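Following up on my earlier thread - several people asked me to post the actual chain instead of describing it. Fair enough. Here it is, all 106 residues.
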Amino acid sequence: MGLENIIGVEKAGEILGLSPGRVKNMCAEGKLEAKKIGKTWILDKTNLEVKKMVKVMYEDILVGEILTNRSLTVDEALDLIDFNEEKFIIDNGFDDIDYNDFSLVY
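Reply from S.P.:
Thanks for posting it. Predicted structure:
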């Protein structure tokens, strides 16, 4: 992050069309890439992509959650959450699972 690209929550809010308070919350939640120095959040104005929570579901069972700023395939999501098929089958009392029953909810 070059010094010329460092901005605070006020400027980030202007760019994103959000209040400074909302930007602070998004920084704290990890939805915006930022660093906290003391009580001040700093952001790179060239990297203001908002991350979204993606839920990995099997039928109606929440398998895991991922914070990302891009679209994922089910296989990528399962890799990111270190999905353990054997443990999942045992924990949920299944005999087997169908990978076509996994879905991602953005």
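DSSP finds four helices and six strands in the chain. That should answer part of your original question.
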